[in-house]
Amino acid sequence: MRRILSETDRKHILIIDDDDRIRSLLAQFLGENNFIVSTSPSVEDARLKIKFFQMSLIILDIMLPGEDGLSFLKFIRDTSFMAVLLLTAKWETSDRIEGLELGADDYLSKPFNPKELLLRIQSILRRVNVPNSTNTKIKIGSFIYDWQRKILTQNEERILLTTSEANLLTILSMRMGRVVSRDEIVTQSLISLNERSIDVQMTRLRKKIEKNPNVPEHIITVRNSGYILWGEELR
After folding, report:
1. Are 151 and 202 in a shared domain?
2. Cβ burial 66-89 (10 Å sphere, 16+ → b, else e)
3. What would you report as the CA-atom Rg of the chain, rounded to the nearest whole angstrom?
4. Structurally, how many domains does the chain consist of?
5. Where would you tag: which of 55, 164, 171, 212 has the fewest CB atoms within 10 A of its CB?
6. Each residue's pLDDT tens digit, 55-110
């Protein structure tokens, strides 16, 4: 028997596209597939909506009037966990590459089949953990980390972190489940770091968190890409 989804089960999707017809058709299609749907014709309008609503995923057209989609994508990645699927024109290869480099979860070229869009959305939501924006605590193995207060505990006992370690763990925690590049860590870090010092600090951090630092389960190095933190949101 198919389960009827409650409002709390349903995922909220924001469609940002300046084409009225596309917004209307996608909103109807996704609504029929058990999603809560909001729409925006511009980034300016979208900023207001994400200020008041927690979105599970954003469908974002790159070519928008005023602020473009890539600029807004960078803002989203710097401030939230929301998943993003880009809509691009077939010939916008450079924009697709830049979008993926900025942290888009996937892209789809126009025109597209709505069924393919649905499958891509479902795939993203399966693999992307979207923490509640008001919750700043995550569970990493037997540890609890509050990335807003920069406090790491195990069995309610505080584990001492250096400023560098806390800074790195916070950057990874805010992007939990996503690959974070070394360049992004350098950009987001509040202290001076280079690639070599990042590797050294990651090694020290693993010694405090991992059961076996040589075979890490939580802070994983992704070759030629960066690092990814595996944990879970505390509800």
Report:
1. yes
2. eeebbebbebbbeebbbbbbbbbe
3. 19
4. 2
5. 212
6. 889 999 998 988 889 999 988 877 766 788 999 876 667 777 888 878 788 888 88
Identify whether 6 is part of a domain: no
The domain boundary, picked from 127, 161, 183, lies at: 127
| Residues 138-177: tens digit of each pLDDT | 999 999 998 878 889 999 898 988 877 888 898 898 888 8
The phi and psi torsions of 133 (rounded to 5 degrees) equal: -65, -20
pTM for the model stands at: 0.55
Domain range for 162 = 137-233
Token representation of residue 149: 């207060």
**Phi and psi dihedrals of 22, rounded to 5?**
-65, -45
Contact 96, 88 (CB under 8 A): yes
Tokens of 148: 């807003």
Domain assignment of residue 132, yes or no: no
Q: Phi/psi of residue 126, each to 5°?
A: -70, -35
